[in-house]
Design brief:
The chain has 108 residues and is an all-alpha fold. It is built from five helices and no strands. The protein has a single domain, classed as Cytochrome c-like domain (Cytochrome Bc1 Complex, Chain D, domain 2, Orthogonal Bundle). The structure holds protoporphyrin IX containing FE (HEM).
Length: 108
């Protein structure tokens, strides 16, 4: 199902403790998420990723919406050893909405 970016902005409140997105965003506890949809996994400049995410990058390449959905549903089960301390979004609609929100930011 297509996500709703406006609803996704609200879901993103759960991510804001660790992530920034949009113009002027910077790495914080987590990597900057501007342009993350379609971006190479574990490639935010200057961010120190876990081996788990680097291995995922070597295996899977880029963050497609589908790949993001799997990661966000249960980060620790999809990328065992990730340092993203977030339990995940169990509701499919929330995942689709936050991915639509993230997709609304292209590079830069
Ligand atoms: C990594 C999204 C919540 C900390 C990532 C990545 C994505 C993401 C897409 C991979 C980025 C890349 O490959 O460059 C989200 C979303 C969240 C969320 C959409 C909310 C639904 C959080 C929270 C924290 C956090 C709450 C901190 C408690 C991190 C860290 C990484 C990461 C540390 C790097 C993981 C590693 O190197 O293993 N996040 N995140 N995230 N996130 Fe989150």
């Amino acid at each position: 199902a297509e996500g709703d970016a406006a609803k996704g902005e609200k879901v993103f409140r759960k991510c804001k403790a660790c992530h920034m997105v949009g113009e002027g965003a910077e790495n914080r506890v987590g990597p900057v998420l501007t342009g993350v949809v379609g971006r190479e996994i574990a490639s935010a400049e200057g961010f120190d990723y876990s081996d788990a995410l680097k291995e995922l990058a070597a295996a899977d390449g880029t963050w497609t919406p589908e790949e993001l959905g799997h990661f966000l549903e249960n980060p620790k089960s999809f990328a065992s050893g990730t340092k993203m301390s977030f339990p995940g979004l169990r509701k499919e609609e929330e995942r689709a909405d936050v991915i639509a929100y993230l997709a609304s930011f292209s590079g830069g």
